[in-house]
Amino acid sequence: MKVKQRKRRNRRFRFYHAVLAIMLIYLFVPMLATLLYALAGTWQTTILPESWTLHWFADLLQDARFGESFLRSLFVCGFSLILGAAVITPAVMIISLEFPRWQKVLSFLALLPYAIPGVVAAVGLLRLYSSGPLPISGTVWLLSAAYVIAIMPYMYQGVRGSLQAFQAGALLEAATLLGANRWRAYRYVLLPNLLPGLTVSMLLSFAVLLGEFVLANLLVGGHYETVQLYLYRRQSESGHLSSAVAFTYFVLVLIVSGVMLQLSKRMFAAPAQVEGPAIMGGAASAMNAQEGRKLG
């Protein structure tokens, strides 16, 4: 029996590793090909480039427009993420826990951006804000507002899934029974548990926004050149240069995502250590007591 179990485990182990290897190959082979083409001097009839050069990367790094466009993209994406998290996260938490009857309405509104094409949304926003009391057409503020709408489904699904995963309703009730008010319960009990799902949602939204082209092109165009617009305008010059831009863009996004992940862990872990463990322990005790009463 033990031999058969070991064989089954080994087969599962090999299967999982094979699936993981296929996924890694699928993800990184295109980037490897892009890097090779960016480093190629001449590449025509051979499997690998006939000569190598760093000319295209040097040309890219010497262009001040690339750095400026990347910083603009970071600013507008970061501002949109902060604004989206500040608006969407409390709304999902309060409606899910305090007003569950409105959960279906919130779910419909949150998933609505999936059904609206980017072109339609951009044209509607331009017509709405090109005049009137708030003429912000062609500005970064309109682009940020459009980005918040675009990431709403990702933020909603992440926050909602996290609340269901750690039984937020039971934790909130237990913390309240122990004497914590609503603010302390949300701040020191629910928010630390919500952090992993919120971080994943923000990273996913960040990657989506950095690849968004339609909204940036239609809403701001040349008034606020982001890295997507920069890549689009320079891709006609040389395929090698476009490959260098794409690979550099990928590396920078990877670095920024890693920095964001580390900063989010440090920012939310420190406050949670002050009063969080006591409330969490008490909440767990209260939950166990309630379960014991039910069983009794």
Automatic annotation (TrEMBL):
SUPFAM superfamilies, per database record: MetI-like
Membrane topology: Multi-pass membrane protein
CDD domains in UniProt: TM_PBP2 (cd06261)
Keywords: Cell inner membrane, Cell membrane, Membrane, Transmembrane, Transmembrane helix, Transport
Main location class: membrane
Places the protein is found: Cell inner membrane; Cell membrane
Transmembrane region(s): 15-40, 70-93, 105-126, 138-156, 194-220, 240-261
Biological process, per Gene Ontology: transmembrane transport
One Gene Ontology cellular component annotation held by this UniProt entry: plasma membrane
Superkingdom of this protein's organism: Bacteria
InterPro entries: MetI-like, MetI-like_sf
Family matches, as Pfam families: BPD_transp_1
Similarity comment: family membership: Belongs to the binding-protein-dependent transport system permease family.
Name the UniProt record assigns to this protein: ABC transporter permease
